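Data card: per-record layout.
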Amino acid sequence: MLAVAYLLVATLAGFAVLTRALPSAPAIVRVPGGFLLAVVVTSWTTYAMALGSSEVLGWDEHALRVGLLVSTALAALVLLVLGRRVRPRDLWVPRVDGVLAVLAVTVSWWLMHSRLREENGETLVSANTWGDLGLHGALSRSFSVGANYPTQYPFFAGEPIRYHFGFDFFAAMLQEGGLSLLWSFNLPAIIGFTAMLLTTFAICRLLFGVAAPPRWWRDRGVWVGLVAVALLLTNQSLGWLRYVQQDAGGSLLRALRPDVLWAHKGYLTGGPYTDDRIVMFNTPNAYLTQTHLIVAMAVVLLLVHVVLAHLDALSDGAAPDGRVLAGVGVTFGVSFWLNGVVWLAAAVFLGGLLLLGALGALGALGARSDRRRSGAWLRAGAWFAVPALLLAVPQALLLNGGGTEGGLRPHLGYLTCSSTASSCHGGRMDPFSAADWWSFTQYWWLNEGVFIPLLALAVVLGSWRERRIIAATAGVFLWGNLVQVGQDVGGQNHKVFNLWENLAGPFVAYALVMTWVSGGRVLRRHGRGLRVRWRSLGARAVTVCLACFLVVSGLIDAMTVKNDYVVSVFGDATQQQVMEWIIAETPLRSSFLTDYDQLYTAPTLAGRGIALGYSSWASSAGYDVTERQRAIAAIYSAPGTGIACSLLEQLPVDYVLVGPQERTSPRFALNEALFDGWAPDATFGSGATTYRVFRVSLACGASGRQPAVGPDDHDSRVTPPSTRSSSTVLVR
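The structure for this 732-residue chain is written out next.
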């Protein structure tokens, strides 16, 4: 299978590159890091070759396979050149790392299998992750069973895409290589989430570990890492109080019963989409619905580890190696299309980290500081910033429609004002209002609990090196509270705070571990009436209580994931027949008219575009959906062919679909008699479940829009989904 060969060769090539560039990095960073490097680099080489093959050579039906073969060959060449220097010892994993890796893979597999799986040959998706699957399934299949070059937004056909689609294209690569849609999303998600957990652990050991501990359990960095991993897997909000009230009737003793916890269903929080001050973005739902968030976050954490390891190795006042930062800059720059919001937040952190490091180094030099040393730091920073910006800015402009609409704008307070319980509800925070700032404090207390106070404690307990890193992390928090990225502040800015939590987590874990270790010393100085033993026990009891408050909401979320019900992805047998026909009998670049505001339609699941899908997604991407909403409603309810066809001429559609969704739409009254007079290209089902497909060029005669490709130019390489391993997708 081509996908397996590609993944094996590309991952080994990435591992060889990281082993040569970062020989001191632990294997638990370099092994999954090799896969992440493969995603970042080979998805671009594949896309460039596929785009060229389609646009220049006209090889629509072979474009993706050509790109995949070229990327596999290039990865094999890199492996041939650099792989000879890799030795078995480069794969050596200490026992504690190995055990943690097994646990990380197990947890990651369980999470991804819970959201998306196959049972009795049917692809199923959990209800809480069902929504985002509609978009990412469409994007992925627009490449794997379509030819989306130049790339358009499947939910707004005819317009260049304004959405970071890098991971969805990578998933399509795996589908082209033979993986099912399910595994094209679940496999990268499992590896990516495992990489997040292991890299977080490695960062903690790098920052807080002992160089050569006699035993692993005497290494403070190991314990900090384990706590940080637990924080990443859970959420720190006060949502658990609702569990006590709703599931246990207000009884804390009943809430502690395992059978009550085991039966819990549903997330405890719903903001900002319900009138709730605690948002749902802290829950596992953010990662389960957004595979591209997992991969982008894992890439950022990998680069953060590289930068921290390099800065940690510098002597006081020494400037970073420009070659290392250039490599980080190039990798970071080409990763923009994986997730632009995460990229911007990571740029704030990495830029702030380098700036603070430079200021710290210059301050350490004192009287010995000179212009040459200052210039060395500036040049080193430029080695990172210049390639990162040169590679990312064109992507940002392309995905933002070449303008500023839907881009960055000032917005104070994130979602502080999103609930009626806020003093600034219905508007933005007033920076001169004490009530609004109190509401801001309440909001973050409800969503983060003791997380922020413990982070403040880490500032007190940490060294100057650690304080600089915390300050850079604080820059991400400030960025998310000052700047709105895109048009949906909740649906997009939450990724900024997901990254902030992952960067701040190691320091919160450090504060907990230090409370356990050193709390007894504090009590010894200030609690003379107590015996030493009781002082230590008191400190550890406080630590355990704080840890419980940090993770308990996440444990309840795990039950939500476990008990979530599932639904079919591809619909009933009739809809699957429609999809099979579309794949086999319509041009690869064709587009359809369907009812709008639908998450799942046969054309998008078959890799084709539609005039308008879910309006909120299209509008948040910067498209003007109003005119298309009116046109679609007017076409389906048109009194005659003339009016319908005149409107169809204005839309970039080749086919019109009339099915159950159009008959029951609350947005218009379907004039079925109009379409009874048209000759359908195909009919499926019977009665209320009938689907009819009409070709615009035939229904409207010479005035109709001509198909994107000749009507007989079908994709002969694609077999219907019923004969392939079906699958699914996700995220926003």
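Known properties of this structure: The radius of gyration is 27 Å. The longest helix spans residues 489-526.

See the next section for split statistics.
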